[in-house]
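Reviewer 2 asked us to include a model.

Predict the structure of this chain.
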Amino acid sequence: ARSRFDIRFYPVSIFFLIPDPEVTFSSPWAVPTNKTDSFGFWSMMAFFLILTIGSIYEWKRGASDR
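Predicted model (structure tokens):
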């Protein structure tokens, strides 16, 4: 049987689910920079740039204020 849950739970769950892929994708890059080549470095920078742009966009829209 399914039970109903409070809709206020949804933003809290999203708040905890969004960082999971970020941690998963950034874990392999947690190695010394002298062990990675330039492609690895720039792919890491592109990934974090996309995350930063998305975070700024959500912050400007007030997505976390709901």
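The chain has a mean pLDDT of 75. The chain has one domain: 9-65. We have added this to the supplementary material.
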